[in-house]
Design brief:
The chain is α/β, with parallel strands linked by helices. Helix content is 29%, strand content 21%. The chain is globular and about 65 Å long. The chain binds zinc ion.
Length: 435
């Protein structure tokens, strides 16, 4: 099927049409009388290139009670994402070519979004022995990003060797910056609120010390470092300094760190328990500024679904993490566009174009000739977040019941509508698509 999307405004551009022929955006259809063209009346909606997430937990294999590649892919489509990067801390850990190929194939079978596995840096996330990085890079999954996310690669020599190894194929080490010796038993950000509540704190310096070390290592080796979920003002300063010195470092911030502060922990609602923890108002302002001036390159969801029982318990026993795929775009609009820090072209940059560049994907553009990954957004819509209507298996969103701006209307993945007027397509089995 081919598509003519009428009356649409590409972000920042004049109203016009988008044409999709055989899964590819084209300036003009190949024949004037092309048959099998479905007309989509967009009614002035904004078109963005499909969003690209560099930090998604899909939980499969091993924790299918929390999420599967299929349910997470459906959540991605609802959020406007046409590519997600699946973190390696599954069970078994994605530290071999076999596991990353399994995740990649499950993504293809699901068919709602591209699923690119992230490989573990070390075997079993143990921080000791390098995983088979080369075999994962050479596998069918073509892994380019490696991370022990959930854990920090804390040994500087292991980190140096990982950076040296991936340099051969221009890979990226994505670091979860958390010095474990400074965060033992931590339950929330260390500061006034943790002192008042009597909860063990996770100090900002535990993140900043690792980032400072790693930008020096990356500069020394000449390799690419990506800093996951930056959460403190000090981290932004260090990355700004490193970029000014020419270090090949990129960084991400999550939607929740753009909006929420540690004051939320006073509720003792475990939905606000996350790693890195929610920080202070000053940190929120600093990460917004860092995103606005390009110090922080991208927004990544850190979508972290958990089964209900992992969150329906006392604070100290609860798992860390929040879901994020289905709310990310709205949070970026609320925190960056509405306060005037961003235009829609900036949203495209931090949620599509730059993440695609970092991952080495030919995505993040609406130029003719590129794959037809397109999201249609109603920028004027307001919606109340309804957990029951979400596609993710996880219901641990801190935004439940909130009224948020902007709504994803439709998502085209590789030229096929996987979300149409807010409704997920019933794709069925992948073999029906094979052609
Ligand atoms: Zn994560």
């Amino acid at each position: 099927m081919n598509y003519l999307i009428r009356d649409v405004s590409p972000a920042g551009g004049p109203r016009g049409e988008l044409k999709i022929e055989d899964g590819v955006l084209v300036a003009e259809f190949s024949q004037p009388g092309l048959r099998d063209v479905e007309v989509v009346e967009a009614g002035g909606l904004t078109a963005l290139p499909g969003l690209v997430d560099l930090h998604t937990h899909l939980r499969e294999p091993g924790r299918e009670d929390a999420e599967t590649v299929l349910s997470g892919s459906r959540a991605a489509a609802r959020g406007g994402f046409t590519a997600v990067h699946a973190m390696a801390n599954t069970a078994p850990v994605a530290d071999t070519a076999g596991v990353v190929e399994q995740v990649w194939r499950l993504g293809q079978e699901a068919g709602y979004t591209a699923v690119h596995p992230i490989g573990a840096v070390t075997v079993g996330l143990d921080g000791v022995q390098l995983a088979e990085l080369g075999a994962m890079a050479d596998s069918a999954a073509g892994v380019r990003i490696f991370s022990d996310d959930g854990k920090c690669v804390h040994d500087p020599l292991v980190m140096r060797r990982a950076l040296e190894y991936v340099k051969a194929f221009d890979g990226v080490i994505a670091q979860h910056a958390q010095e474990p010796r400074l965060t033992g038993g931590a339950q929330m950000h260390e500061g006034d609120v943790s002192a008042a509540l009597g909860l063990p704190g996770w100090p900002a310096v535990a993140e900043e010390a690792i980032i400072a070390r790693d930008v020096l290592l990356a500069g020394h080796v000449g390799s690419r470092l990506h800093v996951c979920h930056v959460s403190t003002a000090g981290s932004v300063d260090i990355i700004r300094w490193a970029k000014a010195r020419g270090v090949r470092v990129t960084a991400e911030v999550t939607p929740h760190h753009l909006l929420l502060t540690d004051e939320k922990v006073r509720t003792f609602d475990p939905v606000f328990k996350v790693n890195p923890p929610l920080r202070t108002d000053a940190d929120v302002h600093a990460v917004r500024e860092g995103l606005a001036d390009g110090t922080i390159d991208i927004v990544a969801t850190d979508h972290a679904p958990h089964p209900t029982e992992a969150k329906s318990c006392e604070w100290s026993a609860a798992a860390m993490g929040m879901t994020g795929l289905e709310t990310a775009l709205s949070i970026v609009v609320a925190t960056m566009v509405e306060p005037g820090l961003f235009g829609w072209d900036d949203v495209v940059r931090v949620m599509s174009t730059r993440p695609a560049e970092i991952a080495g994907l030919p995505a993040g553009t609406l130029e003719p000739g590129s794959a037809a990954d397109v999201v249609l957004v109603d920028p004027a819509a307001r919606r109340t977040v309804d957990v029951a209507a979400m596609a993710s298996t996880g219901s641990n969103t801190p935004f439940a019941g909130m009224e948020l701006p902007a709504a994803v209307h439709s998502t085209f993945f590789a030229g096929r509508p996987v979300l149409a007027a807010g409704e997920l397509a019933d794709i069925g089995k992948a073999h029906e698509w094979a052609n």
